[in-house]
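Provenance

Sequences were taken from public entries as deposited. Structures were produced by running a predictor on each sequence independently, with no templates supplied. The record for GmrSD restriction endonucleases N-terminal domain-containing protein from Oceanobacillus kimchii is shown for reference.
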Amino acid sequence: MSNYNVNNTTISNLIGWIHAGDIAIPEIQRPFVWKASKVRDLIDSLYKDYPVGYIITWQNPDTRLKDGSISRGKKILIDGQQRVTALMAAIAGMEVIDDNFKKKPIKIAFNPIEEKFEVRNPAIDKDTKWIPDISEVFKQGYDQFRFMEKYCNDNTDISMNELNMIMQKLQKINFNSIGIIELSHELDIETVTEIFIRINSAGVVLSQADFAMSKIASNVVYDGMVIRKTIDYFSNLIKNPGIYDNIVANDKDFAELPHLQKLKWLKNYYKSVYEPGYTDVLRVAFIYKFRRGKLADLVSLLSGRDFEARVNREGIAEDSFRKLEEGVMSFVDETNFKRFLMIVKSTGIIDKSLVRSQNVLNFAYALFLLLREKDISGSEINHIVRKWLVFSILTGRYSGSPESWFEYDIRRFDTQEDPKQYLEQIEAGELSDAYWNHVLVTRLDSSVKSSPYFNLFTMAQVVNKDQAFLSKSITVQHLIEERGDVHHLFPKRYLQKNGVNNRSQYNQIGNYVYTEQVVNLAIKDKAPEDYMGSVKEQQDTNELKIGESMDTDALKENLEMNCVPESIYNMTIEDYPAFLDERRRLMAQKIKQYYWGL
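Predicted structure for GmrSD restriction endonucleases N-terminal domain-containing protein:
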């Protein structure tokens, strides 16, 4: 049997099928990403009888019901969602959802004299040569004779006969052919997923999560669209709380469900160090409730896949949708989310720039939800999640093959009688003295300012409430919160003037320190021995030149908390390599003390 069949239908039939619910369009309630000009171009192509490509559908695989019969599911629109939505807007006059979840029309105008399409605008509305909205032409009951009579009276340079021919050509769009590739319902999930990703790779790159979301939305038996909307709305509200009222106004059915009440707290929630997208929500819910890591497995399970018997069973599909909804509702729960964020912030992550890996946060949240489900005490949860989050950054645990590690770790935390034991076993194996004294020091040899290891050092400074370099009233946390920047202990211009012109050398993270801009400006391009000499002099003269007034003990403490070697008082260009080596070791020890103190 062929993997697919190729058929043709008309635009009118396609729109009719969608209205009848024969084809599921999961994206219909998501923001429409095409520009209005692209919709205009699509209509123009149809008018000129140009091919507009194929849409691709896949019928849900057969599932075995409890009575032994076979169920055939609805067709999922795998490719062509934007084109179909554009046709529904321009020809059927339906509104689309914009980026702020407001409904808006996309009206395409037509000039019969020039046979030209354009996006409707105020100038077109005033020009009698234009039909402002072509969807009016396709409505039932449209009186074409009356329209033509009025149009020819207003525009004497076209005859009724000419206009009639052009209007028939316009209305013929409804009967234009569009190709449909129907993927066989017997194809396995993995093959369909691969097809889905490949056919979309030329445009916006889509993923396993995109396919899973399409699969979820296409299910009407287990409220798939409600689950889909909960995920979508959360991931948009967390970044833009202002759209809440638009969701209420434009999706009245969802507004009456308890799912929206679960999201209501987000309308007044601004600025978070963790802003999950729909992929993150899906991934966390899946790891937590299914104890699995591979998102492709979620699509299989939602189709009722029995991995051992290699058949699809309705009971598995039902159970999978139930578990997924439970996982999503746990994710969006206000108490869970805010408690998790408090744990995250307690590690020193006070700004999202301090954690580059969303995988780290995703797994930590899944772990948090799992431990809550296992009824572990609150203080124990805080301790385990906090340490595991930082451990994951330290070791780069989820930077390669993350899905395999997700599954490995979540299952072991689940099966351990005392989850803390698993944490301690992993620590003992991976955080030896060799790690702290050699591996971490080597990883600090980097010129990437966003390095996770410099971020760890910064997190340690935040937790310790360290003051900025040569400051006693301004902390590192203050500078991060006010978008302060890092500066060079060996000034960049000083290094360049002395022959260090390679960015990877003068921008070493071992040369970075948080300090106020006024301090950095006072240091300028001086050698460390010069500007630190000025710092020492002002202790006697009380004439401030650099930083704030500090006695000898306070200054020593300031250098220690910023891991600046005391030998900096005598350092010049010749000392730069030795300085970097010493400072990296000091930074590694500070990170070590910070980690074991979590």
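The radius of gyration is 31 Å.
Residues 63-67 have pLDDT under 50 and may be disordered.
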